[in-house]
Structure formats: C-alpha cells, structure tokens
Amino acid sequence: MLEQKEAYLLLGTNMGDRNSNLQQAIALIESEIGNVIAASSVYETAPWGKTDQPGFLNQAVGVQTALQPLELLQVMLDIEKKMGRVRLEKWGERLIDIDLIFYGEDTILNNEELSLPHPEMHKRRFVLEPLNEIAADYIHPVFKEKVSSILTNLSDELTVQKL
Q1: Radius of gyration of the chain (CA)
Q2: Pairing with 125, which of 1, 34, 132, 136 sits 20 to 30 Å away (CA)?
Q3: DSSP 87
Q4: Is-contact 22 93, C-beta < 8 A?
Q5: Span between the terminal Cα atoms of the chain, in Å
Q6: Calpha distance 90→69 (Å, rounded)
Q7: With helix as H, strand as E and coil as C, how does 132-158 read?
Q8: C-alpha torsion angle, residues 87, 50, 43, 4 (rounded to 10)
Q9: Would you say 125 and 50 are in contact if contact means Cβ atoms under 8 Å apart?
Q10: 82 CA to centre of own chain
C-alpha cells in the first residue's frame, strides 16, 4: 500500500451557490484525492487582491492522500475544471478554488509548478482562520512556527467571519 500523507487544502468560492460549491468540492476531494480527516467551519471573507467582486466562502480541509504533491495539484486542478472553473484573471471571481497549503509534515518544495508550503498563506487571514480551526498545532516547515502562532502575529485586517 502506498504511504499516506496528510495534506491541508483551502477551498474558496464566490460565484453561484457557494455552500453547494464547497460541499461538491469536498465530495470530489474525498472520491479523487483521499479520506477527508478534518473540515473547518465555513467562513465568509472579503475579497483579497481584487476587491471589486462578491465576498467569498472559505473552508480548510485536511486529507490523507497517497498522491505525491504534483499529482495532488493536478487532481485539484482537474476537480476545479470539472466543477466549471474558468481562469480569466488573477484573484478574480471563481466558482471554486482549491489551494494546497501544506503537504506532509515537512515538505518544502519550490518549482515552477508548485511551492510548498503555500508561499502566501502566512500573510492571509482567510487562509489562517479556517486552517487554525483544524490544524492549530501544525508546524510550518519553513518558519518552524505553529499555525496558531502565525495567526496570532498576523497583520492582515481582512474581515473573516465564521458562519
């Protein structure tokens, strides 16, 4: 049997039936990536980067997977496509967005296709609030700091509200 790794993903949506989009994404993750071992509450968040668009719903999920990081990324992109995601502009509106935040306990990767841990996660409240709910003690492999500690020291003032 292939070794299982724990990975943390962040889901985001600001188009259509946002709750349904999150539920559909989790169902597809469960069937195509691996066992979902944790799911945060859903959070309503103000748009980040490009602010003239509807607010987002975000949710963090932890998953056990036998996929390697680049395989996992490809399956995540395939799930986004299956659900109807069209990439028109950076940080634009989206039906679903699935970001890989952490993979394994100590995976650090930086190439053209994928950077792990997610290179911007430590600056974004909309990532850290839901992630903290399910992985507060997870240690960031670069900063050697717990998710809860990164969140405590965060300067991002973006509105993130637990639903």
Answers
A1: 15
A2: 34
A3: -
A4: no
A5: 39
A6: 22
A7: HHHHCCCEECCCCEEHHHHHHCCCCCC
A8: 40
A9: no
A10: 18
Each of the 163 residues of the chain gets a pLDDT tens digit; together they read 578 999 999 999 999 999 999 999 999 999 999 999 999 999 999 887 777 788 999 999 999 999 999 999 999 999 999 998 776 665 567 889 999 999 998 999 999 999 999 999 999 999 999 999 999 999 999 999 999 999 999 999 888 999 9
Token readout for 44 is: 């309503």
Contact 142, 107 (CB under 8 A): no
DSSP E strand boundaries for 82-133: 97-103, 109-110, 115-116
In order, the DSSP letters of 28-52 are: HHHHHTEEEEEEPPPEEE---SS-S
Per-residue b/e over 102-136, b at no fewer than 16 CB within 10 Å? bbbeeeeeeeeebebbbeebbebbbbbbbbbbbbe
Residue pointed to by tokens 């973006």: 158
Measuring CA to CA, how many Å separate 63 from each of 32, 135, 151? Answer: 11, 12, 21
DSSP strand pairing (115-116 vs 5-13): unpaired
